[in-house]
Amino acid sequence: MISSENHHLAPEGSNEKEPVKIILAEDDKDDQELFIDALDEAQVPSEVTTVENGQELLDTLRDQSEPNPDIIFIDVNMPVKGGKKALEEIKSDKELRDIPAVMLSTWSHPADIEDSFDKGADLYVQKPNSFTGFVLLLKKVFLLHWTKALLRPVVSLFFVSEKNISHKD
């Protein structure tokens, strides 16, 4: 099932930024809700479309009636088509390859991280254990993204987890 939610965080009449168009590929409903709630808390004006596996993600991206998203978040472990397989197909498609792709995983295995990097992911994020951690992490991801640090990631900036980000920002 594909759902779409609009989140307009700025008050009416203010200088509202265009909402960020996000597709979240995540099969866990709780993780979908956590992600959307954390975006709200991080005050990232966004329109989130959720899909539940890599095949739904590809179908949504290839739908000509929908504009491409600004960024996609892809859970590594999903049914039907896993995140890394979907990433590989996205990055080999000339129409889709320039969309920034952030991999999400509960694991931080170096081989997984390297494999995602080699397949063209722009960032690999270890899912935080807490809501606060998720909010902080999303703030960092969007700060990195909008300063264009993701255009050509370097490996040292590529892996993000709660352990290697400061709680002071």
From TrEMBL:
Protein origin, superkingdom: Bacteria
Pfam families referenced in this protein's UniProt entry, alphabetically: Response_reg
The UniProt keyword set, sorted, is: Phosphoprotein
4-aspartylphosphate modification, residue list: 75
Asked if the record carries the keyword Phosphoprotein, the reply is yes
Q: Does the keyword Kinase apply?
A: no
List residues of the Response regulatory domain: 21-142
InterPro entries the record matches: CheY-like_superfamily, Sig_transdc_resp-reg_receiver, TCS_response_regulator
In Swiss-Prot or TrEMBL terms, this protein is called Response regulator
